[in-house]
Amino acid sequence: MGLKMNERFIAVISVFILATVSFFSLFLLPSTGSDELFNREHIVPRVRDVYARRQVLEQQAAELRRKAEEAGIVAPPIPRPEVAGSDYNEARRVTVKQMTKFAWDSYRRHAWGSNELRPISKRGHSSSIFGMGEMGATIVDAIDTLWIMGLKEEYAKARNWIQHNLDFALTAKGDLSVFETNIRFIGGLLSIYALTSDKMYLVKAEAIGKLLLPAFDTPTGIPYALVNVITGSAKNYGWASGGCSILSEFGSLQLEFDYLSVLTGNNIFSNKVQRIRNFLSEIEKPNGLYPLYLHPKTGKWGSVSHSIGGLGDSFYEYLLKHWLITGKKDTHVKDEYDAAVFAVERRMLFESKQSKLWYFANIHGTRIEHKMEHLACFSGGMFALQSANEVNSTVAAHYLELAEKLAHTCHESYVRSAIGIGPEAFRFTSDVEAKAVSVNEKYYILRPEAVETWFYLWRITKQEKYREWAWDVVMALEKYARVEAGYSGILDVYSLPVNHDDVQQSFLFAELFKYLYLIFADDSILPLDRWVFNTEAHPFPVRMQ
Ligand code: DMJ
Question: Does residue 375 line the site of ligand 1, with CB under 6 A?
């Protein structure tokens, strides 16, 4: 049957269109295999980009692994998520849980009861902050994380060890850091008590709290940094500006000491921290700024240095968090926080020339040091938390912007390294931005502060980029920090293949793994309006009253 000329033309065109549509629609069909994870419609375009980027990273990682193997360094396998294909973030959360279990099992096998693990030489490790005793710091710092992650067997072993072995009166030796003992041991015990209502933890926390009390016997009530719990003698570090106490240390006791008093009914602890607060309220602050050193006998500031990084950091954090944990009832402390961060912002916040990165510098006398420490990266989370609790929307928006800018700067310090994790400190000069310069700034000791900030910003803004940044850290940890028996710090984040410091810090469990886990978890786990995290990421409940 013959077709007319115009009918033939229409038929040919139709066949051509049909063939073209069919051909190109093949590319629009959902793909299979590992891509299944990304086929939920609302996340497809963005996650496909992430997937493509990840493939490039994985190829790069394979190349690096090959080089490492050639150099005789055997990289352990990256654990696969237990859950495949169900929910992408669930799989990422489970991956963090598996990493925690691996690090914990290694500590158990090679260093049980020691303060920390050396994951390469597979033996115990301790640092001077713990004095000379073996008090199982990793167990106490990790136990709430084990509980939160539902690692039940591991939790049971930790509980059992604490019940039968944690006794500072018997095992602590030498000079302990009052601050570190407070945030890790008392903080860890109080948070697991808050989560489980198991009285045993509270009894242990109170016993340790009592052993720290001699450090507070000073004319000003400002405690010494170190205490020997056997002799009861206390002192400061020789290097701290002529025997001064340190701002971040005596300024980061209130959450734990108040909570200890609330739970035990023994006001001795809250009285000690109230005295510190009173003293700090009265004393004059140069330009509204708090110097890092204060002499506990004379009550005078030491050398006038300022930082929101090491030696200063958690002082500011505790002003804000004390306001929050009192159900915003202590408005006096909020006023002090506002005044303190106003001065810090005014005098220590800078913007870099080329990349317009916002950063906090340090001040030494009249000299401004354009260096931001990894520790200072916590401040983005603090400002985000502040913004979420401000009534005034202009103030809230201001601090959210500051938080996001700082989070971005810290992320830049991560992506500008060779391993995708940032250094201990990074500088801003005419030549470099967000990069370490000297050898003693280039290391990474499993610090959590950048991830901590991304966690708060994820909860508060719901921007996916914060989860992606956290996942990049997970992958970098697997590639570069994971060793045969745990995770190790890295000596130089700019140099490949990496060299390790052979220390698995206890705050890997308390902080880094916890924040990584929570960023991929539902917000109903430890909601920020009900729980306040101490500076070691141990959660305490908000006192609603
Ligand atoms: C933790 O022990 C605490 O967060 C402390 O406040 C300072 N930072 C370390 C980990 O980097």
Answer: yes
